[in-house]
Amino acid sequence: MSTDEILFEMPHFSQYKIVVAGDALVGKTQLVSVFTGRDFEHKPTAGADISFLKLRGKGDKGDQTTTAIFWDLSGQPAFDKVRPLFYEGAHAVIYTFDVTRESTVLSLPSWVKEVKKNLPNSPAILIGNKIDLKKERQVSDDIGQKFADRMNAAYFPTSATKNQGVGTAFASAIRRAVYFRDAEG
After folding, report:
1. For the chain, how many structural domains are there in total?
2. 46-55, 98-107, 125-134, 150-159 — which is least confidently predicted?
3. How far is CA 50 from the centre of its chain?
């Protein structure tokens, strides 16, 4: 799915902040890079990496543009204390785990707890990344879906390296951010 295909009714707001959270090395930065068309550079995120994407859609006054701002948060424990500062004002959350490492799905409750402490009502989606690594896979889509159900979130299996399912997942997160902020405002 291209970013031009993400058309939806947009209210009068022009920016939507979406936080991308999960353990280190689950592919958060690569997912954001693939979706935003930014060159991916394999380096750990230091605190937060911010990416912007202009989108167009139909609004009250005809065609409008909006900006999705993705805050890719570092999953390293060294950033546990500063990470909550980056949640403020987010309109949606993309939780991410690596299907080749069971520990990353088992840590989801800790991520949800941390995020909910700062964003109690923000909508969320759950991404199970690296589905292209079939032989290394440790977490099935059924398990991912069960976690998503408990989180009241939609589940999306993706492969950032193959750009599989990324557009659909991120479009869902953007739509949730738009509807959430519209309901707030």
Report:
1. 1
2. 46-55
3. 12
Domain, as residue range, for 158: 3-184
Distance linking the first and last C-alpha atoms of the chain: 29
- Strands 92-98, 15-21: pairing kind: parallel
Task: Report the distance separating Cα 50 and Cα 35, nearest Å.
Answer: 13
CA angle 148, 92, 14 (to 5 degrees): 150
Distances (CA, A) of 119 to 14, 51, 85, 101, 123: 20, 20, 11, 27, 9
144-172 pLDDT, tens per residue?
999 999 999 999 999 999 999 999 999 99
